[in-house]
Amino acid sequence: MEDYKPFWPEPPKAPEGAPNILVILFDDVGFSDFGCYGSPIKTPTIDKLAEKGVRYTGFHTTAMCSTTRAALLTGRNHHSVGVGCLANFDSGYPGYRGKIAKTAGTLAEMLRPNGYRNYMIGKWHVNPLHESGPTGPFDGWPLSRGFDRFYGFLDAETDQYAPELVRDNTHIDIPGTYESGYHLTEDLVDQSIRMLAEHQVGAEKTPWLLWCAFGACHAPHQAPKDIIKSYDSMFEGGWDKERARRLARQKELGIVPENTQMPPRNDGVKAWDEFGPDEHRLYTRLQSAYAGMLDHTDQHITRLIDFLEESGQMDNTLILVLSDNGASQEGGRNGLINAMGPFNLRPEPMAEKLARIEDIGGPDTHTNFPHGWAMAANTPLKRYKQNTHGGGIRDPLIISWPKGIPARGELRHQFAHCSDVVPTLLELLDIEPPKEVNGIAQQPIEGQSFKESLFNPDAPSRDKPQYFEMFGHRGIWQNGWKAVAFHPMGTPFENDTWELYNLDEDFSESRDLAKEQPERLEKMIASWWEEAEKNQVLPLDDRFAPRFAENAERLQGDRNIAIFHRGVGHIPSDVAPDLRSRDYRIEADADILNEKSNGVLIAHGDTTSGYSLYMKDGHLVHDLNIGGEHVVIQSDRKVSKGRHLLGLRVDRLTKEEKPRMGTGMGRSRYTLTIDGEDAGSVESHLGFFMLISWSGLDIGRDRGNPVGDYNSPFEFNGFLRKVTVHMGTQTLDGEGVGKAEMARE
Q1: Region of poorest pLDDT, from 307-311, 554-558, 737-741
Q2: By C-alpha distance, which of 16, 215, 226 is closest to 124?
Q3: DSSP secondary structure string, 6-27?
């Protein structure tokens, strides 16, 4: 024992002078939306960061959120790490598993052995949603992919006033309400500051990575009403004037060359002057909600930057501000106040939109703006998110590091891709990519560092091609040229028309040179196929609708019963019973303790859509909420004291061969039952066709924005033993499900 010497392994040490790293990742923000990229929207803090660093005008993403995040996190192409499309499904092919492969370590996993502490805030969405429940599996959650702490949400989107929150590996209650002034953006910044403040207490000499991924500006567009209304006067002139104003400003700032042309309006977008005053008022307010959300987020980023300044960390913090793809087309031609109705075949006519104009941005809305404003957000680029033209994949990127990058307020016009970010950071830190992570051999880093351009505005762009693919839309960049094909869904890929642009001379992709240089185009198309083969892009598959239906069938098709015992916590929507397009029966085993029993037995959804079975003043009540239209039935008698089986039975009476907007999917009967005996029924054409809600399920309460006419959480005041859901045969409409799922991305 005298020779025994305890062994304490040395903790990993960071490189000398290693900076902190702050990634501020926006969602669905267009190329021109930051003030320093040409917008009139107020983003003074983002603009100040640009003044202290560099702005890239040739930064590219992957056209969707899951895919860009996978590339940003790993430094590899999204298909090659298994996230070729969305995290919402697994099609079985290596490039389309919906989950980052273990052979592709994340930036956090690369930094941890080099002495960094890693914090993840906000949107994750690189893990299959059927693995987002309280039992995991957790191997794809942030804490299993290199992060030490996590506070945020796992899905593509969430309500800003009643979000689906996770702390580390646990779903948690919302810390506030709309009435108390709660908003997710403010909460995320609060948690960011808390994590960094606590880091200073115990590890002040250790560098950190904070990955802060806001929900803004993904739908629902929600922000304080006073901020929203302040933008009405700014945008009342319409999207055509706004595009022209932004392009002029971009030329003045040097964001785009002087010869940049404005492309024609995107397909289906009408001139602003073709609409009447009612439409103008509605469309303006929808744009104001989007602008207000961005403005509101910038205001709270200010608090985070102020904390870095006050704590003496700003000088040696490397900050990146960027968006994951272009502005979204998912609001449709007229925009939406509550998207949940149309997703379930309940129309939202113009008269209803106008009647609800003052609700826009509030807790009972699921707002998204129309195509024309998304087009303006992407000025001067074509098309939108999901597409491989510039409007879908060319995005803002700001990099600031006061101590390490001398450039101040400069522009960089080199091509860069989101997969290039990790190798750039590693080179700045003088860290080699690991050959193994957790004992697993790693794929090569596929991105290419653009470090040189941070210090030299004349540095060359990368020397390797970069492919693009999303839902069959394709593209490839190579030495300043771009070949791109828009793919009409359901048509043969060989029928696609490829376009050719010299981006060095044609920023907005306005002059198609395909007929003038066919040989160059053919070589680039051949190069695309080579890159597709190398990166697991094949087989091409534009069937996003059937893939969603197939995924649902594989994961829940055999599930015909779900039992929720007393004590079950919050259940995410993708793990909850799938009641779409089927008969079902709900039974709650409960003790009624008094003749005025109150409270929720089971609730799934929120104020915009869902269902709730509850007690009110001694009566059993069911509320079916489809896009804010309620089908409510109350039992024809009170429920006596004692133990009872309280239920709902849903029978589909007629089934439409081709369900359509307004008439639904056929009529259904909703019948309340008490101890197996009918206690009242109602018939309706409304039901769950495409989705129930983006908000999850609760037993014994309704924790968020309430589904029905009661105040949340409306906890059951009896004794609830369990709730059982029995599900009949399901026949999903793949096209409808796909449209709904696409809107959530």
Answers
A1: 737-741
A2: 215
A3: ---PPPP-PPTTPPEEEEEEES
